[in-house]
Each structure stands twice: as C-alpha cells, then as structure tokens.
Design brief:
The protein has ten helices and eight strands. The chain is of the alpha/beta class and 237 residues long. Bound molecules: 2-phosphoglycolic acid (PGA).
Length: 237
Amino acid sequence: MKLFVANWKMHKTRAEARAFAEELGRAIGDGIAGAELVVAPSYPLLDAARDSRGRWALGCQNVASETEGAYTGEVSAGMAADAGCTYAIVGHSERRRYFGEDGPVLAKKLARCREAGLVPIYCIGETTEERDAGLTATTLVRQLDALRSDEPSQPLVVAYEPVWAIGSGRSATPGDCGSALVHIAEILSARSHLRLLYGGSVTPENCRPLLAAPRTDGFLIGGASLSAQSFAAIARA
Ligand code: PGA
C-alpha cells in the first residue's frame, strides 16, 4: 500500500473543504487500489473534509506538546483523535522554522500522539544551507533523535522533506530522494512498522519517477493536494 497525505496547511474554508471531499469522492470512486489516502486540513475543517465512506482518513497538521490544561490556542492530540484524526503531522519544517519547534518539543508531541493513538507523520529534512555545507546526513540523524524514546514496535511514518524543495517548484531528484530514504531506513532499521514518504513540490507530472525511488512508500503533498483532481492523479500514479 502506498500512502498519500494531503497537507492543506492554512488553506480552505469549510465550503471549499466540502467541495474538495465531493470532488475527491467522485475522482476515486470506490477507492484507488494499492493507495491509502489521508487528508490533513486545519482543525475547523476536519468535519467538512471527512469521507462518510471512509475512503480516506483524516490527519491533523500539529498537536500540542502537553496533554491538557491552560495552554491557550493549543489543540491536544486527544482532541484531534476525538475529532476523527488517525494521523498527525509532527515537526513539519514550517513548524520548526516559524514556531521554533525543536527536538525536545517534538519528542513530547510524538509521545502525546502515542497516548492518543494517533500515528505520527514525523517530518525531517535539511535546509539549503545544510545541504550546501554537506550536512544533509548529519541533519537527518539529528532530527531523527527526537524518536529516541518512541516505542519501535509502534507504526510510524517519516516524511523526508528537504526544506529547499517545499513549495519551491523544485522537487528533489529521485536519486536524492532515494538516497535520503535509504539512509533513514538504515537508521530506523529496528522499526517494525515504518513507512517513508517524500515531500516537496510533488505534482502529478513529477510523481512517477519519485515514487519509483528506493524505499519510497508515498508522498506528503502540499500545494498539489489543494486540488482534488491533482491529489487523486498523484495517488493514481
Ligand atoms: P509542497 O509542500 O508540496 O507544496 O512543496 C509539501 C509539504 O510542505 O508538506
């Protein structure tokens, strides 16, 4: 089963989310053989993005690092699970960059996901500067350290998203993607239920060779997932 996750980021109204769900339902009919789909909208859109036939699952884009309490503006992993999420994106580079999330905070978020029964989609990836300095492998190792206390028998999704490829229109090459994912798989070789995604400017046009790269189990898709047609086209590939 390949896994395709739509990360809507901070886009869409409820009406737009409902229209997307209807269109995606029409586009995939009874579902796409061999493909598992997840839609990760903002919290207020979860209900609108839900499929009553269960052809796609829901994910959230972030969870709080604490379980419950006086944390104004936060949404807990338990609340996200209660609202119908089965997956949670953790450590997206936009969270790391704009909200200062680092290893210790992300380790706590991963633990909150486990308590709530959410499968984390843990995002890692190097910046342009790190890549230019030859620090890609070092960066991945450092970011994977947040998984140190995570129980290795639990299902885990790791998304390799080089920061320079996100929203830039310049995806990684299948070679770059494959070598990063093989490296990640080696580091996480003790894991029994591990799926590895690539993310960064994936489109219906460039997805086939990327999906054929070694160890690639699917994609985390931003921009191209805002259209039901292009999300379905990628999943169908
Ligand atoms: P993009 O975003 O597909 O728009 O590059 C991917 C992501 O940030 O998850």
